[in-house]
């Protein structure tokens, strides 16, 4: 199962109330491909998240693909939202993508508790640093 485009998620998200937005995020998290437990290590753990979050980058030609997981359903959905902005795009494009701006329409800081969003900047930084390194 692959993640829908961020614009498609946004089209649906903007018409939902808060409770349904939570459901959409949880469903989005379920669409992440399974991350093998062997990859859930201290080296792949995103720092600063209240829940455990792991991100493992892979590369197919010039395109980046991220495996990710979280032990919290809504956090996993937020992770999927971040990845929807960059998944399977060339590393050079990912390095140039303003992921924070791409996520602004979702207004996550107002929709979710600060616990659920505090690690988002660290995850975005990890994605961008990976893209810079691999472009």
From TrEMBL:
<dbReference type="InterPro" id="IPR003808">
    <property type="entry name" value="Fe-S_metab-assoc_dom"/>
</dbReference>
<protein>
    <submittedName>
        <fullName>SufE family protein</fullName>
    </submittedName>
</protein>
<feature type="domain" description="Fe-S metabolism associated">
    <location>
        <begin position="15"/>
        <end position="129"/>
    </location>
</feature>
<dbReference type="Pfam" id="PF02657">
    <property type="entry name" value="SufE"/>
</dbReference>
<comment type="similarity">
    <text>Belongs to the SufE family.</text>
</comment>
């Amino acid at each position: 199962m692959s993640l829908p485009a961020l614009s498609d998620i946004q089209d649906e998200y903007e018409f939902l109330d808060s409770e349904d937005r939570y459901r959409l995020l949880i469903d989005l998290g379920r669409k992440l491909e399974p991350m093998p437990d062997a990859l859930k290590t201290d080296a792949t753990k995103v720092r600063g998240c209240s829940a455990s979050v792991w991100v493992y980058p892979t590369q197919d030609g010039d395109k980046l693909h991220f495996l990710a997981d979280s032990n919290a359903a809504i956090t996993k959905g937020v992770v999927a939202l971040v990845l929807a902005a960059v998944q399977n795009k060339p590393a050079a494009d990912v390095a140039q993508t303003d992921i924070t701006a791409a996520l602004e329409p979702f207004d996550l800081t107002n929709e979710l508790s600060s616990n659920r969003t505090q690690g988002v900047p660290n995850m975005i930084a990890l994605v961008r640093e990976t893209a810079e390194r691999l472009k």
